[in-house]
Amino acid sequence: MIRFEQVGKTWRDGSAALEAVDGEVRRGEVVALCGPSGAGKSTLLRTVNRLVEVDRGRVVLDGTDVRRLRLDRLRRRVGFVFQSIDLFRHLSAVDNVALILRRAGGLSRGESRQRAELWLDRVGMADRAGSLPAALSGGQQQRVAIARAMCLDPEVLLLDEPTSALDPELVTGVRTLLRDLAARGTTMIVVTHEAGFARGVADRLWQVTNGRLVADRPAREAAA
C-alpha cells in the first residue's frame, strides 16, 4: 500500500535527514518506526502526507507517487496525529472533531456534530464531548486527537510519538485504542521510542538509524 523507494531528504544546511530508504507497508498492517532521537523517524513519517517533501526517490500510495496527488485529497486519505496533540484549546472535544468534518469533509454543522459524536464514542470519549482540552488528561486529549484524525475515514493513520507526553498509566489506554483500530483493518505507521509499546501494537518494527532503515523485523522481537 505504501512504498518508500530510495527516499532521501537533505536539509538546507546540508545535513542528511534520510538516505536511500526502501520499505513497504502493506494494507492493514501496523509498522512501528523506532530508533534514537534525530534518526529520521518523524521525517520519514511526514513524507507520506507531504509535510516533508522528499529530495530523492519517491513515496508511493496505492501505486501513485504522492507528489502526483492533490494535497487536500492526499490528506483526506492519510490522517496524522502529532506528537504535541495540537487540539484547538478554545473548542470542546466534539467541536475539535466536527470542525475538521466541516472544513475538509464538507459536512453541514448538524452532520459534522453527529459524526464527531460517533467517533468520540468509538474512542471512549462520548462522556467528555463537551469538555475543553484543558479539562482533559493527556490520554484523553490523545484520544480526541485520534478521533479527529480518523473522522474522515482515512486509509492510513500516521502517529508521531503518540505516548511520549503521557504518564505511564495512560499509555495502556492509547495502546488498547490503537489495537482496536488495527483490528478494524486500519493501516498505521507509528513513531515510538518505547519497545514495549511497539511490541504491543505493531506487526513489524523498522529500526531507523542516521536516516537509514537498518532493520525490518517482527515487532514481537522489539525487546530482543
Automatic annotation (TrEMBL):
Organism of this sequence: Siculibacillus lacustris
Indicate how the chain sits in the lipid bilayer.
Peripheral membrane protein
Keyword annotations from UniProtKB, A to Z: ATP-binding, Cell membrane, Membrane, Nucleotide-binding, Transport
The residue ranges of the ABC transporter domain are: 2-224
Q: Does the keyword Chaperone apply?
A: no
Which family is it part of?
A: Belongs to the ABC transporter superfamily.
Entry's Gene Ontology cellular component terms? plasma membrane
Q: Where in the cell is it found?
A: Cell membrane
Official protein name in the record: Amino acid ABC transporter ATP-binding protein
Task: List GO molecular-function terms, semicolon-separated.
Answer: ATP binding; ATP hydrolysis activity
Whether tRNA processing counts among this entry's keywords is no
